[in-house]
Amino acid sequence: MLIVVLAVAGIVFVGLNVLIKSPATESSQVATVSKQKQIKKTVRLTAIGDSLTYGVGDATSSGGYVPLIKKEMELRDQTNVVTSNYGVSGDTSVQILKRINTQKKVRQGLADADLITMTVGANDLMHTISNNISDIDLAKVITASKTYQKNLTKLIQAIRTENPDAPIVIASIYDPFYVYFPKLKALQQGMDHWNQTTQTVIKNFKQTYYVDIDSVMTDPKGSVLATSQTSTKTSASNPFLYTEDHFHPNNRGYQAIANTLIKKIQAIKSTWLYEE
Q: What is the reported pTM?
């Protein structure tokens, strides 16, 4: 008899427990749905940097990679993207920092941004090697990278002063000389070290991301490598480079850069796409 009573009591307890918990579970599910974030109607993208951000070599003169990633963001995320392009050809990290410190419109553009992209470092390196790419002093490059590291740190700190939260996506530099001088190991090592310095700095800042464009721009499919150190530019080619200077990207190059940037931008869209 006792066993029967205990069994009935157990059944009643389980039944009551189900009745009590079910509404709570349903309420929890409803609460989860209600907490889904809303996509921003407008996303503000601020691009800052050197000639790659400005768009030298872009036959459309519309701003290089910037309008390309704007178009892709709007297509993928169904939001309106407003861009501000503060790229200046020839700027080093120091000069970009100076513009932030002296130009109110640049500071405001950074402050208003939901997402920030930046190209930086190529001109710093070029000043170091003084365009003497056939006789690079790697030790000098490594020493100069320490100064670049300090300057880039100050630059990102200045951006963070204006905007503590927006993700910053920073592109690597690439080697536009590789197809013409594929045997210059010191040049490649110098480029690699410069990119490693950028990555070292980025690790010290939250929501700051590195994107490798070197792998898509330095030796893309269709390139023709020079067969000797003395080969002229006409005997080698990189299909992603602007033929006027053999340095900056052409339209295909900017599309390749945009494709690489958008992968990272999409991977981190939880940081810029949704309302808080």
A: 0.85
